[in-house]
Amino acid sequence: MIRIPRNALALGLAATLLAAAPALSFAQAQSAPAAPATMQGSPSELVLQNTRRVLETLESRRAEFTRDRAALQRFVSSEFDTMFDRDYAARQVLGRHGRGASDADVKAFGDALADNLMRRYGSSLIDFNTRLRVRIKSETALPRNLGVKVSSELLRQGGEPIPVDYLMRRAGSGWRVFDVMVEGVSFVQTFRQQFDAELQRKSIAQVTKELRSGQLSAEAGSN
């Protein structure tokens, strides 16, 4: 099984936020620059603009988030939900096990997986280095008109650039992320492999129930 180190998962969650969140809640808007109201514009523009904005938000609210982890969780969940295409990503994670599955079962699985990730790893964003710069390398079409891949790098002082790729698809008049690849490792592929054995023995509904109860956890790594 592909395993992503814990710090890479934190980076991946952060990367999703950086690419995502087109709008802040009222409370967030009071302490961060205003954000565009829709997800219109090219995928590359969205990645670049929102990366800068969310980094600023994480930095400006660091003291608050350090004191109030519930506020951090709300921020992470709301921003993640805004852009990440949970249902489509869930079908990708389910793979062959999702063939013929109802939309309701897929949605419940996607929600349970995302919530599990937020609970387990969301707090690690408090240690995320916000003094980064983003560089967009390219925007290329995915095969079969599935969407686009935005290839970027997070630039840090005293270290090698961190490659982060976003796979994005059209959703209405805008774009949504359905996979994030950090240093070439796909989160969808990682979790597809992780849950394959469970889904061979159990229904999607049962795996969903166990994710919600904590009997199963999205294990991205141990470092």
Question: In the residues, how many domains can be counted?
Answer: 1
Tell me the CATH topology: Nuclear Transport Factor 2, Chain: A
Helix/strand order: HHHHHHHEEEEEHH
Number of helices: 9
The gyration radius over C-alpha positions equals 17 Å
CATH class wording: Alpha Beta
Write down the overall mean pLDDT: 79
Name the helicity range: 40-55%
Number of strands: 5
Biggest sheet details: 5 strands, antiparallel
CATH architecture: Roll
CATH superfamily annotation: Tgt2/MlaC
Strand order of the largest sheet: 1-2-3-4-5
**pLDDT < 50 stretches:** 1-6, 21-39
Distance between the termini: 15 Å
Basic shape: globular
The fraction of residues assigned to DSSP E strands is 15-25%
SS-derived structural category: alpha+beta
What would the keywords be for this entry?
alpha+beta, 5 strands, 223 residues, 9 helices, Nuclear Transport Factor 2, Chain: A, disordered N terminus, 49% helix
What does this structure look like?
With 223 residues, the protein is an alpha+beta fold. The N terminus is likely disordered. It has a 5-stranded antiparallel beta sheet with strand order 1-2-3-4-5. It is built from 9 helices and 5 strands, in the order αααααααβββββαα. α1 crosses α3, α1 crosses α5 and α6 packs across α8. This is ABC transporter substrate-binding protein. Keywords: Signal.
